[in-house]
Amino acid sequence: MTSPVRTALAALFFLLAGVGLPGCLSSSDLQCATGTVRCGDTCVATQTDNNNCGACGAACSGGNVCSAGACVCPVGQGICSGICTAVASDPSNCGFCGLRCAQGQACNQGVCQDCSQGGCQTALIAGCIDLSGGGFLQRIQDAPGGLVLESPANPPVATFPDALGLIGTALLYADHDSSTLLEIPVGALGTASSERLSLVSDTTGSKAISTQIHVEAVDAGTRIYVMSSGVNTLHIFGGPSPGQAGALLDAGGGAVGALGLQNLGGASFDPGSFPEPFAKIGSDVFVPLNATGKVLRVDVSNPASATVKDTFDLQPLVTAAPGGGVLPDGGPLAASPAEAIARNGFVYVAANVLRYDPARFVSDYGPPLVARIDPTKTGQTAVSAVQGLGGDAGTCQNVEWLAALPLGTAAQPMLVSCAGARTYDESFNVTSVANTSLLLLNGTDQQIATWTPSNGGTLGPASVGRAVVQNTTVYVADETAARLYVLDYGTNGFVERVGYLDGGTPPQVCPSYITDLLVSPAP
Amino acid sequence: MGSWRWARACLGPALSVASIAWGQSPAAVELPPVDVPVPAAPPPPESPGVRDPTGLTTVVDVASRRAEVSTVGVLVSEAPGVVLQQSGGLGQSEQLTLRGASSTGVLVLLDGVPLNGLGGIADLSLVPLPAVQQAEVLRGGAGARYGAGALGGVVNLVTRSAAQPVVSGDVGVGSFGTYQGSASASGPVLGGSGLLELHAGHSDGDFTYLYDPLAGTPASNPKLLVRQNNQATWFGGLAKAGGRLGTWRLDGLFQLNAVSRGLAGTVDAPTPDAHQDFLGFQAGARLSRSFGSGADTSFRLDARREGNTFRGGGFTQDTRWWQASLGWDGTLPVGNHWLSGSASVGLSFADADDHAPRWAVTSVSVQDEWRPGGGKVSLVPSIRLDQAGPFVGVSPKLGVSWALPAGVTLQANVGQSYRIPSFLELYIPSGTQLANPDLQPERGVSVDAGAGIAGAPGMFRVAGFAAQYENLIIYEYQPPLPTRPQNASAARAAGLEAEGRLQPARWMELSGSYALLFTENIRAIPAYYLKEIPFRPRHRGTLRLAFQADRVRVHGTMRAQSLMWLNRSNTQSIAGRVLVDAGVDVLVLRRPEVVLSFNATNIGDVQTRDLDAYPLPGRAYFARLTVRFDLGRAPASASPSFFSEGTP
After folding, report:
1. Chain A interface, mutation test: which of B220, B572, B574, most A Cβ atoms within 10 Å?
2. Exposed/middle/buried for B328, CB within 10 Å: 0-12, 13-18, 19+?
3. Per the CB < 8 Å rule, is B571 touching A268?
4. Which of A25-39, A140-154, A466-480 is least confident?
C-alpha cells in the first residue's frame, strides 16, 4: 500500500472517530483518558480540577486551587483567616495577615507605600559586562507598559560588578578588576564609593571573582558575607543596620559617606577549590566547592576562627542517578556544585553534572542534580537528591541556580534554573541549547510547573540563568545573550509576560553578560 | 671599513657590561699571552651596532658570568629598561618587558632569528644559557631595521663563538632538586672552525612560599606551602661551523632545545596535572663576503621549528610552528654615506589541532648612515616595509649620533614601529583564550636621547625616552565566556635610564644600571584611565660588585625594584623588593683550568612574586664545577678563560 493511500485511510478513520462515533456511545460506555476519572457523564482531572479536587465533587474554596489533588493556596499567596491572600499586594493584609495600609497607601511588595508619586513599580539592578571587558550597573523598571531600561551607570572607580548585595538602600558592589568591595547609594548608582575594602591579600594574586554578597541582620547591625571564589575565601564584615545604611551613605550636599564596614575575618578554603555561593542555617554556612564536588559545613559564629564541621560528597548522588554516573560512551560524570540555598530547614545545592572536555573546551552533561542536605544529620547520611527533576521528557540539564520563593507559607516553593546543554561554534557563540528550563517545585519538592524560554530574534537560543522573584513575578536572566524574561506564575504555572511568545522581544539588559541581578529597593 | 666599525667607534666598548676575568688578574698580567689571538669576526648584520648604529644599546656579557646565574633572562634584565617577569623556579617561563612595552612588543632574536612564538611572546627560559655568548639589548622602537614586533626594543642573543680551540664542561647541583651540566668543544676543523655544545638539567622546583588569603584580618592564618608541579627537565645542543669558500665565507648553525615541565598554575588555582613539552630547533646558513671598497654582502637561509604540547589543567593543545626565510643584507660606501639595506622573503605556518594558518612574509629596508663633516656626526634615516599575510606596515626611523672629545657620545632617535598580531591571537583558540581574525596591528611611536662617556676606568651613560603605544591587543575576561583578544588598549611610557661600569683597579669592578619608568593607561575606561600599567615597576636597578685576587673571585649583585601593580585599577600590588645574590669562584687548577663556583641567590630569603603573582623561590644555593682545556695555548695562567670567553 502506497503512502498516500495509507494517509487517506487514516484520515478517514480519525474523522469517523472524532465526529461520528461519539454519538453512538452511551454514558456507560464512557472511557476516560489516563490522568482523568469519570465524574458523572464527564471525565475530569481530579489532580487539578478545582471543583473535583482529589475526588468527584470535592470543590476548593477560600481562594484555594487544586494542585496534585489537594486544595492549596495559589503560588505566591498565603492563608489569612482561612482565605488565600496575596500578602505582597493586598492592602488589607500587606506583608502580614491583618496589616491594613492607611488610606491613600498601596501595598507594594508587601510594604505599605504612597504610590501617588511613582516608585511602586518593581525595579531591578543588573550587573553588566560590555563587549570590551568593562561594564556598568543597569537599573530596569518593570512598569505597567513593560520593562524600561534606565541609562547605564557605574561608579568611576569600578569596572564591573562580580556580585551585588543590599543593606537597606546601600548597594554593595564587588568590583571585578580592583577586587574591592564598594558602597553605592541605590539612588545614585554612578557615585564613587568613599570606602573601598580589599577582597584579596598580598599573598594571593588572582582577581577575587566574588560570586555572592549575603547580608543578614544581627543585633543592631548587619553581617555581610562576600564569597570571593577566585581566591577561595569567604570574607565576613560587620555593618550598620539596613535602616541606618542609606543615611550613612547620604552625607549631604551630594557627598557620599561610608558604611564603616569592619573586617571581622572569614574562612579560607583550599587553593583551587573555587567555593561558590553558600547557604546559611544558624551559625553554619554550607559552601559548595565547585572543583571538588563537595560541600563544606563551616561554623562561622566566630569569624576570626571559622571551623569546618562536616564535609558532604555529591559524587555518590551522581553515581546513583539515572545512567549510573557515566555518559553513553562510558565516560565518567562529575558533580560540580554551583550554588546552595537554605529552604524549609534544608540546604539545597544546585550541581552541574558533567564531563569537561579540555580539547573542545566544552562539557557533556548528565542528568540534573539538586542535592538536599539535612542539617540535623552528619556525614553522607545527610545528603540526598531531589528526585524527578525535568520529568521523563528530559527538559532539564545543567542545574546552576536555585531560588526559594518568599511567600510566607510554611513550605516554600523553589525555582530550579536548568541552564541546559549548550553547543558552541569556534568563536564560542552558542549554537544550540537543549533541555534548558525553569522548574517550579512545591514545598515538598514535587515539580508542579515548567517553563521553557521562547526563542526568536537574532540573539540565538536562550539559556535559563538566575531567577529573581518579586511577589508573583519571576525575572529570569538569559545566560546566552543577557536577555531578561519576565514570568507571572499562578494556578496554571508560568505565563511568559516578557518574551518572544506574543511577538515581543525580551530586552537585552547587558551587552554581554548579567553578572548579578537583584530587586532594588526604592531609593 | 665596514659600517659596523663606524658603529663601534661611535658607540664604543663602553656599552658592554663586561666583567673582570682571570686573564685580567694581577697574576695574569705577569704572564702575558703567547698565543696567537684569534681575530675577532666582524659582527653579523643583525647586530644592533650594524643595523641600528644610533640606537641605545647595551651589550651584556653572558658567557663570562654564566656561573653566576641560572638563566639568560636574569643577565639580560641587568640592562636598563628591561623588566624580567619570571614564573618561579628554574626551567619555568620567563618574559621580558622593555621600556614599558609588553612582552609581545619585545623582539627577541637568537642569532638574528626571531624567537617570539605563536603567541608573540619569547620565553627566555627556553634559551639555553650555555649556548649564549652575549646579549645585545637595543632599547626603543626598532621596527625600521628589525621589522614588526619591536615596539619596545630588540634583544639579540648571540651564540658562542666557534673560533677558540677549547674543550670544556661543567656540572652543578643546587637547591630545590636542581642538577645541570654542559659540555662543549670548539676550534679549528676542516680548514674552518666548529663548535659542539650539549647541555642538560633538571629542577624539582619545590620551594616554599607564603599563602594567607585572609592576611590583615582577624582570621589571618599564614601558611608555608610547597610549590607543586613546578619541575622542569631540559636538554639541548648547539653546533656551529664556518670557513672560507674562496672569497666568500660560509657559516652554519644548528641549535636544538627541549624542555618538559610542570605548569604549577597560580597560587589561588594551582594546576597539579598541567604539563608542557617543548621541542624546538633552529638551523641556518650564511654566505657572506667583504669587498675591498668596504662594501659587504651576505645571504642567509634560516629555518626554525617549535612544537608545544600542553596537557592537564583543563586545557589540552598541540601546536607546531615553522618559519623559514631567505634574507639578504648589504652595505655600500658612497662618499660619506654608508648605504645599507636588507630584504627577505619567508614563510611562517602553524599547525594547532584543527587550525593551520600560514602566510608569506616579506620585508625590505634601507638605511643611510651619513657622516657629514669630519665624521663626528652621524645622521641615520632608515625605513622598512614589512608584509606578513594580510598585514603591511611601514616603520620609519631617524637617528643621530655625535662623537665629542673625551669619549663623550650623544645619541637621539625618533621612530615608529608596529606589531602584527600573532597566529595565536588571530587564528588559534587556546584553552580559555579565543582567537580574533579581525585584529589590527599594534603601533608605537618612540623618541629617545642619550649621552655617554667611556674611558679607561669605565663608562657611564644616561638616556631619556618617551613612547606611546596604541591599538594594543589585550585579552579581556568576559564571564561566562572565554577571553577574546581585542585592539582595546593604549598606553604611554616615559623614563630615564642609566648604566655604568667602573674599574678603579685591576682587581675590582663596580657596575650597575637604573631605570625610572612612568607608565599610564590611556584607555578610555574611567577605572583604568591614567593608572599605571601592571607589572611595570617605576624604579628598577641593579648593582654588581666584583673583586678578584689571584685565584679567587668574589661577586655580589643586588637587584632592586619598587612596587609594581598587579591589576589595571592599581589596587593589587607586589611590594618592592631587594634581592641579593652573592658568589665565589675559586680557580683550583690553572691547566686544565678547574673552577669551583658557589652561588647563593636571594640571600635575604625575600618572599616575593612575579608574573601573575607566581611566587619566586626564596634563598637558594648552587655549586658548580667547571673544567676547561685550552688547546693550542702555552701558559695556562695567561689564557682567556671560561670567564673571559665572552669578552671582546
Report:
1. B572
2. middle
3. no
4. A25-39
- Cβ-defined contact of B478 to A133 (cutoff 8 Å): yes
CA of B309: which chain A residue's CA is closest?
A: A359
Q: Tell me which residues of chain B, numbers 496 to 555, contact chain A at a CB-CB cutoff of 8 Å.
A: 525-528
Taking only the tens place, the pLDDT of each residue in B474-503 is: 887 766 667 888 888 999 999 999 999 999
Minimal-distance CA residue of chain B relative to A230: B268
**Whole-angstrom distance, CA of residue A176 vs CA of residue A157:** 11
**A13 pLDDT more than 80:** no
Residue of B nearest to A231 (CA): B268
Of B172, B270, B197, the C-alpha closest to B230 is B270
Complex ipTM > 0.90: no
Q: How many residues does chain B have?
A: 648
Closest partner residue to A230 among B268, B481, B569, by Cβ?
Answer: B268
Is the Cβ–Cβ distance between A462 and A489 less than 8 Å?
Answer: no
Cα–Cα distance between A417 and B579 in angstroms, integer?
53
| B217·A271 Cβ contact <8 A | no
Distance CA A152, CA A136 (A): 6
Going by C-beta distance under 8 Å and a sequence separation of 6 or more, which residues neighbour residue A194? A183, A256, A257, A258
Q: Distance, in angstroms, between A233 CA and closest chain B CA? A: 7
Q: How far apart are the first and last CA of chain B?
A: 18
Cβ(B89)–Cβ(B232) below 8 Å: yes
Q: What is the pLDDT of residues A88-131, one digit of tens each?
A: 666 777 767 788 877 766 666 666 766 555 556 778 999 999 87
Residue from B211, B230, B474, B478 to probe the interface with A (highest A Cβ count within 10 Å): B478
Q: Are strands B16-17 and B56-61 parallel, antiparallel or unpaired?
A: parallel
Instruction: Answer whether B216 sits within 8 Å of A204, measured CB to CB.
Output: no
